[in-house]
Amino acid sequence: MSKSLVFIEQRGGKVKRASLEALSKAAALGGDVIAVAIGGTGTAADAASLGNYGATKVFAFENESLANYSANAYAKLISKIAKEESVSLVFLSATAMGKDLAPRLSVRLGGALASDCVDVKHEDGKWIATRYVYSGKAVATLELQGEINIFSLRPNVFPAVKKSDAAAEVITSVYEPESADLKTIVKEIVVSAGKLDVAEADIVVSGGRGMKAPEHFNLLEDLAKVLGGAVGASRAVVDAGWRPHSEQVGQTGKVVSPKLYIACGVSGAVQHLAGMSSSKIIVAINKDKDAPIFQVADYGIVGDVFEILPQLTEEFKKVLAH
Amino acid sequence: MNIAVCISQVPDTSARIKIASDGKTIETADVNFVINPYDEFALEEAVKLKEKFAGSTVSVFTIGGDNVIANLRKAFAVGADKAVHLKDETPKDAAGVAAILAEAIKSHFGAVPDLVFFGKESTDFNDAQVGPMVAELLGIPAVTVVVALETDGTTAKIEREIEGGKEMIEAGLPLVITAQKGLNTPRVANMKGIMAAKSKPIETKPVSTDAHSKLSLTKLEKPPQKQVGKMVGTAAELVGLLHTEAKVV
Ligand SMILES: Cc1cc2nc3c(=O)[nH]c(=O)nc-3n(C[C@H](O)[C@H](O)[C@H](O)COP(=O)(O)OP(=O)(O)OC[C@H]3O[C@@H](n4cnc5c(N)ncnc54)[C@H](O)[C@@H]3O)c2cc1C
Ligand SMILES: Nc1ncnc2c1ncn2[C@@H]1O[C@H](COP(=O)(O)O)[C@@H](O)[C@H]1O
């Protein structure tokens, strides 16, 4: 039977949903599942609840020097537990942190690595991963043949499933920073205040050049607020300086897979589609009926964003009020 | 400073991807291979540092077939000094690529260079693996997805993009950096650069291909085709469908 390790990422003492998704997937694949949580004060306290998502044991490393991400220290602690516990599978979420850690772990553990997976399965005794390649234009099936196989999972693709009320056994470990751990130090984290990141949002309302001017993005902000979503942007509007690059969706921006993506005044260039075509439901609003965005849309309205957006916000308000 | 930049060649972003008859690779006949867009940011940053620190060298490393030569000349034209072509036609996974690059970098400089630049990811396999893997193999730290870099030659102040914000990082050299869009604006080669590129040296080295891979690509296919969507007339109708049919709100 396989034994899995899931790395639990947290920010400000709160476990990230993407980590619960990874934990749920590991649990669904069967076998014993352990978790490693690393962070500042409060990390251990939160860890028992990971039992609800299928972890039997949680190794918690709590130290103020671990409150911010420290690549070397985190990689060291995770690979130490992976070795001590003789796991054969490691799961992370393909977040900024997970993507940074996974390749380091694969070298340290000598394992095979599949990143940003949208599916993982065990078939005929083989570990198989599915992932998008060529910026979303093709799908690759990979077979992993390491003694340890490592998967980073694309956020928002796998459901986070609360299985039981079982608490996990929490093993709090002492951590003493060593000089090698401190080769890179995060001095500060600058957060775009109160904003949900496009890559993490369940709903993304995104605008393109069809929005005509930066001030019109308040129409999208209003809609995003009603839906509890985030605002995204095409490269054209980011290049024009209307929106920050952190909001850009696409090949040279972020890859998003929310449950609802609403594209407003976006033409649907291949590079944009590369970033959002794996969204569950895609809505397009564009005045050009031949815009390529309609080819990937589940629902489309041919019309003027300035007319439709305010109506849409009102209609959503009505539905959500019930 | 000794500076290394690793570049890969990828289909240009507007290329149509056709799966070859083996079901594992793409048809390359009509595809224009360019320098991976993120590697252009890596290269530009390296050249900027060379201009700032007198006596620096920028060496470019690439693994690939003979179609890499044109891109190496492009790298020369914007300021790279030397190029190492690790000649290999068989596709490698990220671990294989990283092992070859780490070895080649060490032997080229005779030691670990001060800075080793990569792209954040390649736009063909989108692994985002090679940079941090090489760092581990060279035994030096890496900072990934970098949007700002300032260095005095010994230490560096770095901004790295994370979800919803940025991490401000301090690190010592030597260091691996993976470049994200926003780090700089890559320059366009001028006539002088293009002329100079013609006489700069490309060192070609064969690659031993016996490395055992723990990862195999068994199938490549087009993503599932979406069914033709529904066109609706009004906002009210759309919201109704999202609520009752798609059940997303
Ligand atoms: C190397 C490279 C990387 C790239 N990476 C990305 C990337 O990551 N992300 C990305 O988005 N792009 C990327 N691009 C750019 C991409 O090719 C397109 O240029 C860009 O996506 C177009 O943005 P847009 O849809 O906002 O603008 P346009 O293509 O100009 O489309 C505007 C749309 O708005 C519609 N419109 C206009 N007015 C209205 C109105 N009143 N109501 C409704 N609709 C209206 C128009 O019909 C049109 O379809 C990249 C390009 C290259 C070369
Ligand atoms: N064949 C290659 N030759 C040289 N550098 C490469 C090669 N493949 C990938 N790289 C480097 O590794 C980075 C990340 O690639 P990847 O891990 O494949 O997403 C790229 O941006 C390049 O800097």
Structural notes for this entry:
- Chain A is of the alpha/beta class and 322 residues long.
- Chain A has two domains: 4-182, Rossmann fold; 203-321, TPP-binding domain (Rossmann fold, 3-Layer(aba) Sandwich).
- Chain A has eight helices and 17 strands.
- In chain A, the strands form three sheets. Chain A has a nine-stranded mixed β-sheet, sandwiched between helices.
- Chain A is globular and about 60 Å long.
- Chain A starts with a strand and ends with a helix.
- Chain B has a single domain, classed as HUPs (Rossmann fold), CATH 3.40.50.620.
- The longest helix of chain B has 16 residues, at 37-52.
- In chain B, strands 9-8-7-10-6-1-4-5-11 form a nine-stranded mixed β-sheet, with helices on both faces. Chain B has a two-stranded antiparallel ribbon with strand order 2-3.
- Chain B has 249 residues and is of the alpha/beta class.
- At the A-B interface, helix 4, strand 7, strand 8, strand 9 and strand 12 of A face helix 3, helix 4, strand 7, strand 8 and strand 9 of B.
- Strand 12 of chain A pairs antiparallel with strand 9 of chain B, so a sheet runs across the interface.
- Bound molecules: flavin-adenine dinucleotide and adenosine monophosphate (AMP).
- Adenosine monophosphate is lined by residues 6-8, 36, 38-39, 42, 61-64, 94, 97, 101, 118-119, 121-122, 125-131 of chain B.
SSE map:
The complex is a heterodimer of chains A (322) and B (249).
Chain A lengths: L2 E6 L1 E2 L2 E2 L1 H12 L3 E8 L3 H5 L9 E6 L8 H14 L4 E5 L2 H14 L2 E12 L2 E8 L4 E7 L4 E5 L15 E5 L10 E8 L11 E5 L10 H10 L2 E4 L1 H5 L20 E5 L5 H7 L4 E6 L12 E4 L2 H17 L1
Parallel strand pairs in A: 1-4, 1-6, 4-5, 5-11, 6-10, 7-10, 13-14, 13-15, 15-16, 16-17
Antiparallel strand pairs in A: 2-3, 7-8, 8-9
Chain B lengths: L1 E5 L2 E3 L21 E3 L1 H16 L4 E8 L4 H9 L4 E6 L6 H16 L5 E5 L10 H9 L3 E10 L3 E8 L2 E8 L2 E5 L11 H7 L4 E5 L8 E7 L8 E2 L3 H10 L5
Parallel strand pairs in B: 1-4, 1-6, 4-5, 5-11, 6-10, 7-10
Antiparallel strand pairs in B: 2-3, 7-8, 8-9
Helix pairs in contact in B: 2-5, 3-4
The structure holds flavin-adenine dinucleotide and adenosine monophosphate.
